[in-house]
Write a structure and sequence with these properties.
Shape: globular
Mean pLDDT: 96
Structural class: alpha+beta
Oligomer: single chain
Largest sheet: 10 strands, antiparallel, barrel
Distance between the termini: 40 Å
Strand order of the largest sheet: 22-23-24-25-26-27-28-29-30-31
């Protein structure tokens, strides 16, 4: 814990944030300019939300701006409006002065985390005494239960369509702005922290531990260890590859290739020549950490991986090509004359009033591309997940449809059909200084098959579990590289026996965590298992409960019966492992909490002497959050 004198010294040493307060007239003027710009420029303003809903959202923002407001509160309200557009490229940045202040002053959480099984799991910390170690779960932050924090901050996360699986991923890592959406949004809802008071626990702990930690500057936060792509990574240094006999792995953590550009086809050429020379038969392309980037990387991959000539993108669609006086408030890269007054003969008007940009000879993504002479001719497996978006998701869609690639992992975020992106215009609101990213074009993937508003579904679902994280296992890569899937044990065989451990649950009213000593006996046969629980609920109070689990519909459904209630869930993943009793089973369905409909996910994991059975729930537009988890080991 910080000594009072040290805490006071640190507090006085941090200059006040350069925030501004706007009167109602200035706030309304900024909102009016924002609305006019979005309605003029944004080609996807009504793509996923009806005009009436959009008008209502603007009305709420205008009402909020009809009184004195700070720039930080206005950021919060604008971010909520923009998130409702469901466009991953439409975001609000802090005013320049406040952004610069945040990059050097200590405001960040002094650790990195991932959301795993609905829990906020520490990945690394900065070494402060008493800091939660890697693998620990954060339970409260500055007195606020983690589920409330994540549900609130998650409402500001920008994502395409209905691909809200990206919320959990982006709260932990976004490689943009303040590094992740948690640190980006926290001050707008809870103020800038002068310290972090954290309650945390390890999976096996029955009581919470507490830590008081100093916030750290953004620059120190970016240096914290992280297993994925570092902040603002670039293509030329985000490539990792290895050969294992006749199987090769190529990991690309970002397609961003504009800050220090290289020729991606030449850059990848040596790798693909090696595959050809060595007769490699299976390529695992790991794109799980990549959120998007430059078209030229996608085109290069297409030339090396697709068997036939291809055009990557259809012509882009713009909502407008003349913008009135708006350019005085807009910035972007490139020639301003070409951006804001492009030649009219470079477009054709569509029936619905959009402007279709005619393909230019210098646009490789919209010109016919021939396969490379060093094209890989073997089997291609692509690893995907919720970090994928933008051009990466478009690339995955093309590799699956045109190249027959097998996809392993989790469904990508982003839009397989194509996102609203193109050039990103930066609108500066004159009074608050808020800067709004507005895409000017709908980039459309040249594919015929897609789910509107979604990413690309996988062929083999593999959902990382907390037991995987604790063991340092990458089951997605294991499944992708396996020559044959391991046998899947029956429910009764995997679970049978006597177990002891804990039930750790979240109170429905307060979100307070409660841990009860628990005994479990599992009996059954084949794909039916009876679970008999005994809970120690305090001195002299023993509670018993029973649940029957069954695999139904040829392995497609998990049925759960408790008393007179029976529910069925769709099985997403059911997989064995190297141990004959290892089992991973993930299923999703629907249920109710406090009378409100929720999505429900069950995660059952058996790894050696550990059995974990968790229930996660969420409302639409929120991440899955832990409701309860059993953590058990065999009784002697």
């Amino acid at each position: 814990m910080l000594l009072p004198s040290l805490a006071l010294t640190l507090l006085l040493a941090v200059p006040a944030p350069p925030s501004v307060t706007l009167d109602a007239a200035k706030a309304r003027a900024d909102v009016a300019l924002l609305r006019r710009a979005l309605e003029t420029l944004h080609p996807g303003l009504h793509r996923y939300r009806g005009k009436a809903e959009t008008r209502a959202a603007f009305a709420r923002l205008e009402a909020t701006a009809s009184r004195t407001i700070t720039d930080l509160v206005l950021w919060r309200e604008v971010s909520l409006l923009l998130a409702g557009i469901h466009c991953d490229h439409t975001q609000v940045e802090l005013p320049e002065a406040l952004d610069a202040w945040r990059r050097v002053q200590p405001t960040h959480l002094p650790l990195r985390f991932k959301l795993i099984e609905g829990r906020m799991i520490v990945v690394s910390n900065d070494g402060q005494p008493g800091a939660p170690p890697p693998g620990a779960e954060l339970v409260t932050l500055n007195g606020v239960p983690v589920p409330q924090v994540l549900s609130t901050l998650g409402r500001t996360v920008a994502y395409d369509g209905s691909a809200d699986q990206s919320i959990a991923a982006k709260l932990g890592s976004d490689s943009d702005l303040m590094g992740d959406d948690f640190n980006e949004a926290w001050p707008a809802f809870h103020g800038f922290p002068t310290r972090w008071e954290l309650d945390w626990k390890r999976s096996e702990d029955r009581r919470l531990s507490h830590a008081t930690l100093e916030p750290i500057p953004f620059t120190r936060w970016t240096a914290l260890p992280w297993p994925g792509s570092p902040y603002r990574d670039e293509f030329y240094k985000a490539i990792h590859w290895r050969l294992d006999g006749k199987t090769a792995t190529l990991r690309i953590d970002t397609f961003v290739n504009d800050r220090n550009p290289v020729d991606p086809e030449a850059f990848l050429g040596g790798f693909f020549k090696t595959l050809k020379a060595r007769g490699v038969g299976h390529l695992v392309l790991d794109l799980r950490e990549s959120g998007g980037g430059s078209d030229d990387v996608a085109v290069a991959l297409g030339r090396y991986l697709l068997p036939e000539p291809f055009v990557w993108l259809k012509p882009a669609l713009l909502k407008a090509i003349r913008y009135g006086d708006l350019p005085q408030h807009l910035e972007s890269w490139g020639n301003r004359q070409e951006l804001f007054e492009p030649p009219l003969d470079g477009f054709r008007r569509t029936k619905d009033g959009a402007w279709e940009r005619l393909p230019r000879q210098d646009e490789a993504a919209r010109q016919l591309q021939a396969p490379s002479p060093d094209r890989f001719t073997g089997r291609v497996t692509v690893l995907t997940g919720p970090m994928n978006a933008s051009g990466v998701t478009m690339t995955v869609a093309l590799l699956k449809e045109k190249g027959g690639a097998r996809l392993v992992g989790e469904e990508s975020a982003g839009s397989a059909e194509g996102p609203t992106a193109g050039r990103i215009f930066l609108l500066t609101l004159p009074h608050s200084g808020l800067r709004i990213r507005i895409p000017n074009a709908w980039n459309r993937t040249n594919v015929d098959h897609f789910l509107a508003g979604r990413g690309v579904p996988v062929d083999a679902t593999v959902i990382p579990t907390l037991l995987d994280f604790e063991a340092g296992r990458d089951r997605v890569a294991e499944v992708a590289k396996a020559s044959a899937p391991p046998a899947v044990p029956t429910l009764a065989f995997a679970l049978a026996g006597s177990w002891s451990g804990t039930l750790d649950y979240r109170d429905f009213g307060s979100d307070r965590r409660v841990v009860l000593p628990t005994l479990l006996t599992v009996t059954g046969e084949g794909e039916e298992a009876r679970l008999d629980f005994t809970f120690d609920d305090g001195p002299g109070k023993t509670v018993r409960a029973a649940q029957v689990l069954r695999i139904r519909a040829g392995g497609a459904e998990l049925e759960s019966a408790e008393g007179d209630a029976t529910g069925r869930m769709r099985i997403l993943e059911r997989r064995g492992g190297s141990d004959t009793r290892e089992l991973t089973l993930v299923a999703e369905g629907s249920g109710h909490e406090n009378g409100t409909p929720v999505e429900v996910r069950t995660v059952l994991s058996r790894r050696g002497a550990v059995l974990s059975l968790s229930r996660l729930t969420r409302h639409p537009g929120e991440p899955f959050l832990l409701r309860h988890v059993y953590r058990l080991s065999p009784r002697p």
